[in-house]
Write a structure and sequence with these properties.
mainly alpha, elongated, Fumarate Reductase Cytochrome B subunit, single chain, binds protoporphyrin IX containing FE, two-stranded antiparallel sheet
Length: about 180
């Protein structure tokens, strides 16, 4: 295996860890928020924070290596759409865990990683079992961002998946399990 292949494999592995983690967390987040599955909250937060480490590694990797080129011919409109969706996905992967942490912290619920507390709950001394927000403004804003961006990113992921499937089957490119890396890592 030459140097370039090794780098391509790192980029590809980072893509798949983030993709699987991101899709799982989105589905779990929608489920827990709509069905009040309280037991899932600490797991969602813990996995989301751990995934942020891989996400930041991946962003550095992308900035360092540049974007992969495409193996198929595209119209100008397709290229623009692909660039917009890729940037939105890349920035969205950072925005989601950051807004989640901001919301959990500012709302007074706190967060941590599997029992290791990073931001403590702000317990209400007058009402046992209830928490008080540290900041109503940041709590409200970040909750909206986490929810709206979460749904927008699901749509972007579907567009992205449709493009990957188009490459795979219509253009007969072997790209589903193999991110094309021509010209970069
Ligand atoms: C089952 C789901 C997925 C499949 C099959 C898939 C497949 C691919 C393929 C084939 C490429 C390279 C070719 C191209 O589209 O230009 C790619 C690139 C990319 N994917 Fe995905 N992907 C999936 C999920 C995701 C998710 C969930 C995210 C982030 C939320 C994501 C973010 C990206 C980004 C930012 C790129 C641009 C190039 C790079 O940074 O490596 N993908 N994906
Ligand atoms: C890539 C990482 C993450 C993704 C993709 C993600 C995705 C989601 C989605 C789609 C929802 C449902 C939104 C709604 O319907 O209200 C949600 C809810 C939630 N997420 Fe995340 N999340 C991530 C990371 C985090 C992190 C790191 C935290 C906190 C440390 C967090 C805290 C929460 C909380 C507290 C809710 C429930 C909101 C409510 O009950 O209204 N998330 N998440």
């Amino acid at each position: 295996m030459n140097h370039k292949d090794k780098f391509s494999n790192i980029g590809r592995s980072l893509h798949w860890v983030v993709a699987i983690g991101f899709i799982t967390l989105s589905l779990a987040g929608i489920y827990m928020a709509n069905f009040e599955a309280w037991a899932l909250y600490p797991v969602h937060k813990s996995v989301g924070i751990l995934l942020l480490v891989v996400i930041l590694l991946r962003v550095c990797w992308r900035l360092w290596c540049g974007w992969p080129g495409s193996a198929v011919e595209h119209t100008r409109a397709e290229r623009v759409l692909a660039t917009v969706v890729h940037w939105f996905l890349l920035l969205g992967t950072v925005l989601m865990p950051v807004s989640g942490m901001l919301y959990s912290g500012a709302s007074g619920h706190g967060f941590g990683i599997f029992g290791w507390q990073l931001v403590a709950e702000n317990l209400d001394p007058k009402t046992p079992g209830q928490v008080l927000p540290y900041s109503d403004f940041w709590s409200g804003l970040s909750e909206q961002v986490h929810e709206v961006a979460g749904y927008m990113l699901m749509v972007a992921v579907m567009l992205h998946l449709a493009a990957a499937l188009k490459h795979q089957w219509v253009a007969r490119q072997r790209m589903l399990l193999q991110v094309n890396n021509s010209g970069s890592c």
